[in-house]
Amino acid sequence: MAQIRNVSGQDLDVPWEDRVVPAGEVLELDERDVWSYTQQEGVWEPADEAAQTEHDNRGLRRPRGGDTREAWVAWVVGTGQAAEDELEDLGRDQIRDLFTPQEG
User: Fold this and answer.
1) CA separation (Å) from 23 to 8, 71, 81, 89?
2) Partners of 20 in the β-ladder
């Protein structure tokens, strides 16, 4: 479980949780749901380490195949899959192929 804090300055109705979360209070939820809340800047923010980690990781969108090498490096490094110096000799397509899950 992870915790997020209502930072909106007002009480928020969370009907799917069947409750109102007062301003400044914490809502506990499954880690998989953190990003759907915390992407709303100024409304919810991570309140514990689990929520912060999930927010940081999900906030980075995996680049599309044709995106720049820099976008791929930023994503791989930002999600903790490799250090930037480990990627310096690899081209965009190599990075993409190495860090894209294979189907099947």
Assistant:
1) 6, 37, 36, 49
2) 13
For the stretch 54-69, pLDDT in tens is: 888 777 778 888 999 9
Q: Tens of pLDDT along 23-46?
A: 999 999 998 889 889 988 899 999
**Residue 92, both tokens:** 């965009």
What length does the chain have?
A: 104
Amino acid code (one letter) for 18: D
C-alpha span between 51 and 43 (Å, rounded): 15
3-state secondary structure of 70: helix
In this structure, the number of other CB atoms found within 10 A of the CB of residue 50 comes to 14
Structure token pair of residue 78 = 């930002």
The C-alpha atoms of residue 52 and residue 59 are separated, in whole angstroms, by 10
